[in-house]
Amino acid sequence: MRIAQIAPLAEAVPPKLYGGTERVVSYLTEELVALGHDVTLFASGDSVTAAKLAAMSPQALRLDKSIGDANAPVFLMLERVLRRAHEFDVLHFHLDYMPFSLFTRQPTPHVTTLHGRLDLPEIWGHYELHTDVPLISISDSQRKPMAWANWARTIHHGLPETLFRPTPGVEPSYLAFLGRISPEKRVDRAIEIAGRAGMKVKIAAKVDRADRDYFEAKIEPLLKLPHVEYIGEIGDHQKAEFLSGARALLFPIDWPEPFGLVMIEAMACGTPVIAFNHGSVPEVLEDGKTGFLVRDMDAAVDAVARLPLLSRATIRAEFERRFTARRMAEDHVALYERLVRARMASVEAIAAE
């Protein structure tokens, strides 16, 4: 198939450090190429891919200090994709509702993956108006605020099977927090859980500009506690060792998590996850097998003591069974083919009238 992947421009594909959506777009794109498809990736010019790269900005917008209006390159990209739409069998967008107005007015089948939270009433009007746009959810839980939308399929994220593996010879000795420091991710809970469990916690996390005040007021003072080690943002090449060295990844979220990529990164390393039972978490983790689902702080502290009951080899095997990029790509191809068949059937029906 001739497939266009249209990525956000805020980060490169894959991102240099943090960036969940762009990371997933990269995994999907590379696996589609490996399956033999003709893929074009519309993304920033500093992206790296085996697909054909259509550079829509010189570099990731987050890194370009000269950009005053970050929307301008994105809307220009949409126009450029529209002018090339006839070259593809299917267009796959990762830009939320932005493409709807333009691309419902052209014939090439298109689909949009929604990567973020949907419990924001101000966005609902776009989906109510464009009821013909097929949508991909990244968890069944993500759909709940918009259960009425035109959902085509839920496709869970996946990672390249060899990207992360358990690091041999590493003796797990601490609890880990990985990702982003923000009010909904609750790194403060991770620090408290580790302290109450009598363990060290290592924090490898990014602080966005929007969360800088929160970080300085609420989190930075906690980093001075003797059981806390703040590492900062890390890249993929550091994650396997970081996660393999952890007795568990702490995922003490306080929001309806759409997926939680870090959970399957930990699973790929054979590392169990202790997670608060919100959003997608029960779809990703199997309680008592790949981690523990908890509802409060006391249960989280108790779960630390139960970690020896879990098999790290079993956790890795579950990752291979459920969360590889190959499985993710095959699920997408099946959906693309369905959309193309539906479009062809519609054209034939119109021609027959």
UniProtKB/TrEMBL annotation:
Annotated Glycosyl transferase family domain ranges read 171-307
CDD domains under this entry? GT4_AviGT4-like
The chain positions of domain Glycosyltransferase subfamily 4-like N-terminal read 18-125
Q: Which InterPro entries match?
A: Glyco_trans_1, Glyco_trans_4-like_N
Superkingdom is: Bacteria
Question: What protein does this entry describe?
Answer: Glycosyltransferase family 4 protein
Q: Which species? A: Paracraurococcus lichenis
